[in-house]
Amino acid sequence: MILIAERINGMFKDVKQAIAEKNKQIIQDLAKKQTEAGASYLDVNVGTAAADQQAAMQWLVETIQQTCSTPLCLDSQKPNVIAAGLKVANTDPGILLNSSPLNRKTDEEILDKYIEMAKNTGPKASIITLTMDKNGVPQDTDTRVAIAAEIISKATEVGFDTQRLFIDPIILPVKVPNAQTQPTNILAAMDQIRILAEPTPHMTIGLSNISQGAAERSLINRVFLAIAVSHGLDSAIADVFDEKLMNILATAEMLMNKQIYSDSFLKVYSSMNK
Amino acid sequence: MAVPEVAESFTSEVSQVTLGATKDEGGTRTSKITVGGARNVVYGGSPDDTGEKPVIAMDVIDTRPKDWPDILTEPYKDVLDSPADWAKKAITEFGADLICIKFDGIHPDKADKDAASAVKVTEEVLNAVGVPLVLWGCGNDEKDNQIMPKVSEAAKGQNCLLGTVKEDNYKSLTAIALADNHHLITEAPLDINIAKQVNILVSDMGFPLEKIVTFQATGALGYGIEYSYSIQERQRLAALSGDKMMAMPVICDVGYEAWRVKEAKLADAPGWGHVKDRGPMWEAATAICLLQAGTDIIRMRHPRAVATVKNFINQIWQ
After folding, report:
1. Contact residues, chain B, for A267 at CB < 8 Å
2. Nearest to B242 among A264, A268, A272 (CB)
3. For B244, which of A163, A263, A271 is closest by C-beta distance?
4. Which among B194, B197, B243 has CB closest to A259?
5. Which of B8, B197, B244 sits opposite A263 (nearest CB)?
6. Given a cut of 90, is residue A274 above it in pLDDT?
7. What is the pLDDT of residues B192-227, one digit of tens each?
8. Is B11 part of a structural domain of the chain?
9. What per-residue confidence (pLDDT) applies to A179?
10. Which CATH number does the domain housing residue A50 bear?
11. In-domain check, residue B263
12. Which of chain B's ends, N or C, has fewer CB atoms near its CB within 10 Å?
């Protein structure tokens, strides 16, 4: 599982404050601890509070990379914020650009921009693409699959390897009225998206979204992750500090024959992703 | 019709292991051997992905072997009582890449030799040849735990490959290999889950994963080779997809297994072809088959089989 650790995000109070006060310690601690917990990438999101998002992104990237060499996942809906991060990031260990929809009403070419940035960065740069377009987030399975197909064909057209695509079928909070059909739709979409291209694109999700506003958040996250692994999920933006989540993930991957069983399979799991 | 491009690429690789320490490194070896480093399956990917060439470790037994058929003892008839001369002959005449001293003689059911004898053999072979050594116990846990630490100490600083450790008997040899700066062979009985577990256990003791070579137990042609093959193949695929606990190079014991087989050694079987050809062919066929699954070090015995397998390796791993 390619785990993208979610905590360095300006939506969290401590990170928001650290960005405002330029407190490096908090950010570097989070980078180190998430790496130790098994993160393959560290998500870096400045949130909405920073006045100058580009400067905040650069400060976060530089701060993290002063003490940590884990690959980063630059997270912004704005291409210029991603570009700012890329300018200062060490991309040698790999980098993820997170994320682009197929297109937007205000920007038909958004996906091309993300692909271009990844191509210019080098062969170890990948992008997360969302199965949404200018009409918004689809509710059903078929539209998700159709958008994914367009994303894949666009990438193929410009010679961007499908293995460098992380397709995110977009999880909606299960608590939202009428959204309880969504988990099933997403799983069905994943089953189909996986067979759209060879080599298979990665499938990722923003796991914690599913439990947004709900009771028993961790439990919902954990169970959905286990189910999604059985539908081919091979990446997730998640809380790597949730030890039970990590144990469930290790077990799910072992049961799906993604990891060779050993009596110590839980113990070694977090070191496997690095 | 064009041949479709089916080359698969992988994210990780088999770790690389270098055996032997030269004078500059505190040893007395005149050459070193590096194995591993493959970034694809055998024959897969680009030529850059093949990693290091597999190597052949020829067996030298610490005591005159009693159960070898004539056809196998014949090439060694003048050196069977002198492991040092035996090792020299294997290198200079038969082209062995390295020497595996197999301490059969310490086994309580065989010659039941003591530590002094094992140490003497080790020192003599170290003096006789300059290649790296594999030091392989007799398989009796109690006797191995008692004697192999002494053998390890006698070869301290020579960066040998010491073995074997198993899931239920790994502590003393792991500790001594760590102390004497050797590489280590982890053994599992044709069971990939145990293979992974023993690597984890050894690594928990602080032994570096990159100094381990795995031994999955070997089956000869017609006698379980498919089990060895599929486990080694699965290990390679796990290594290539990033499982660090399975990313080690592989050693297999073809010599012993092939020459246990009746088809290899039975003299009185006219319908099977001449016995002088059968054994070497059986050994070579077993080795070449396992090479395709991903084998890095092959223990072998008969010079003709060694020549055949070396020829194969040189043609495939150019």
Report:
1. 200
2. A272
3. A271
4. B243
5. B197
6. no
7. 999 999 999 999 999 999 999 999 999 999 999 999
8. no
9. 86
10. 3.40.50
11. yes
12. N
Whether residue A271 lies within 8 A of chain B, CB to CB, comes out as yes
Query: Nearest C-alpha of chain A: how many angstroms from B201?
Result: 9
Our count of domains for chain A comes to 1
Mutate to test the interface with A, among B191, B193, B232 (most CBs of A within 10 A): B193
| Domain assignment present for B8 | no
Q: Any residues with CB less than 8 A from the CB of B316 and at least 6 apart, and which?
A: B42, B43, B291
User: Domain range for residue B208?
Assistant: 16-316
The parts of chain B modelled with pLDDT lower than 70 are 1, 3-7
Q: How far apart are CA A150 and CA A166, in angstroms?
A: 14
Encoded amino acid at A72, one letter: L
Tell me whether residue A190 is in a domain.
Answer: no
* Within a domain: A72: yes
Q: In the predicted model, what is the mean pLDDT of residues A205-220?
A: 96
Domain count along chain B: 1
Q: Which two tokens stand for residue B316?
A: 């495939």
Closest-CA residue in chain A for B247? A272
Distance in angstroms (rounded) separating the CA atoms of residues A216 and B293:
48
| Tens-place pLDDT, residues A80-89 | 999 999 999 9
- pLDDT the model gives residue B46: 85
Domain assignment present for A157: no
A199 contact B CB<8A: yes
Q: Residue B149 is part of a domain; what is its CATH number?
A: 3.20.20.20
- Look-up: residue for tokens 């690959």? A71
Q: Tell me the nearest-neighbour CA distance from A92 into chain B, angstroms.
A: 14
Range of the domain at A16: 1-93
The phi, psi pair for A73, rounded to 5°, reads -120, 100
Question: Is the Cβ of A51 closer than 8 Å to some Cβ of chain B?
Answer: no
CB-CB neighbours of A177 under 10 Å: 5
Q: Does A106 touch chain B (CB under 8 A)?
A: no
